[in-house]
Amino acid sequence: MKKLLSTLLVAVAVLFAQCGASAQKFVLEPDGVGPIRVGVNANTLPESVAGLYDSRQLLDEYYYNCYFNLGGDVKVIANLSEDGEILYVRTSGSDIRSKSGAYDPMPAREFILLSGIKTSVFPERDYFQIHFEIDGLDVLIDYYNFSAEGQKKYDAALNTGVAPKFVPSDFTPEAYIMINREY
Question: What is the Cβ-side half-sphere exposure of residue 100, based on CA atoms within 13 angstroms?
């Protein structure tokens, strides 16, 4: 009886995990999500896409952004050229994730545990000299969001040009990642 109950609990857990994984309809990719893609003219997109956005609005007269909302919450922000072409796409919230599970804004301590993260060092840059990538997505973490120990690794990497292996404690508890943000 005990073995049957254990087997049943495992089966329910597997079924629950599979249902949760399939519930995410849209996957964040390097060029966007759903029909909201770099190079597409925002004016040609549908007024709504079930499960992704139910309204969209163009805001900012000088810095062109198109906000895609679902249930009153901003889910996707597209930066546009003057003629409406999408230049880059960002998402907001944990319900739109990359294939590996990264989302914006994800706690850095959780992000660093995902598999497939590539870390690069760019000492010549003024900002974001340590660059992360996952699933082809650019991921940024501000220098001041690294803990004291993380900042030591960061600084050493700038001197050597070698990307360190970061661990969760290398980030402050308040540290969050930014995906596909222009910098």
Answer: 19
Cβ neighbors of 177 (< 8 A, separation 6 or more) are 102, 104, 105, 106, 107, 108, 111, 132, 139, 140, 141
What three-state secondary structure class fits 56? Answer: strand
Residue 101: closest CA among 115, 91, 89: 115
Q: pTM surpassing 0.90?
A: no
- Alpha-carbon gap, residue 27 to 129, rounded angstroms: 27
Residue with tokens 């120990």: 149
Quote the CA–CA distance of 130 and 61 in Å, as a whole number. Answer: 33
- Residue 40: count other Cβ atoms within 10 Å of its Cβ: 17
Give residue 15's identity as a one-letter amino acid code: L
Instruction: Compute φ and ψ for 67, nearest 5 degrees.
Output: -100, 130
pLDDT digits (tens, 9 = 90+) for 71-114: 999 999 999 998 889 999 999 989 999 999 999 999 999 999 99
